[in-house]
Design brief:
The protein is mainly alpha-helical and 211 residues long. The protein has one domain: Up-down Bundle (Four Helix Bundle (Hemerythrin (Met), subunit A)), CATH 1.20.120.1630. The protein contains 7 helices and no strands. The longest helix is centred in the first third of the chain and has 33 residues. The termini are far apart.
Length: 211
């Protein structure tokens, strides 16, 4: 068994566990939404250039994953010069992302929505991972993508993965503006206590217009 095959098997294991958890909770959310179909969302889902761009980037990344798995003799034409010992470090962010994904979904419960919208009777979640981070779901995606970039050491996966990570920033800004409009000072105070993708080390008053 070659070392590259070992990396592929580890990648498949990580992705399978992550994908299973993601699909499980998304199906639960879809079922809950059907049960509450008599209570439509308070706002229409936000659509923007960033959302279109991230959808295209995610599709590109998934295609790159498939090429890495099934066209391996051809796809190594696009390797990144990452040493083997460093590639193994990719297991760490992937392994951290999986329980954080489950924790985030369990904290959200019925409040989770794949769309950027305000649900009927929407409440501000500030417990669990949301006690320290405003967008732990995006943190999950960033961790997992960076982990797979290291594990696969592939140029295509890296390009599309970094595009997804970059586009999460403007999308998070849109989400925060939506929640500021809905919750006002309550959400502004929450922003002062938390970091966007990582816990805030030092808390200080947020200045007007500060991101």
């Amino acid at each position: 068994m070659t070392e590259e095959l070992v990396f592929i098997l580890v990648f498949v294991l990580m992705y399978a566990v992550f994908g299973f958890a993601r699909i499980y909770y998304r199906r639960k959310a879809a079922k809950a939404k059907r049960e509450q179909s008599d209570r439509p969302p308070k706002t229409k889902p936000i659509r923007s250039v960033a959302h279109t761009a991230i959808a295209i980037s995610i599709l590109g990344m998934l295609i790159a994953y498939l090429l890495y798995l099934f066209v391996t003799p051809w796809f190594p034409w696009f390797p990144l010069p990452i040493p083997s010992f460093l590639r193994w470090f990719g297991v760490i962010p992937c392994a951290v992302a999986i329980p954080l994904l489950i924790w985030t979904h369990r904290t959200l419960g019925r409040s989770y929505s794949p769309e950027l919208e305000i649900q009927d009777q929407h409440q501000l979640i500030n417990t669990g991972p949301y006690a320290r981070i405003r967008h732990p779901m995006y943190t999950v995606f960033i961790l997992f993508i960076l982990g797979t970039v290291l594990l696969t050491a592939n140029l295509f996966i890296t390009i599309f993965g970094l595009l997804v990570c970059f586009l999460l920033y403007p999308i998070s800004k849109q989400e925060e503006q939506m929640l500021l409009t809905e919750f006002g000072d309550q959400y502004r105070d929450y922003m002062n206590r938390t970091g966007r993708f990582l816990p805030r080390i030092r808390q200080y008053p947020r200045q007007e217009g500060e991101s």
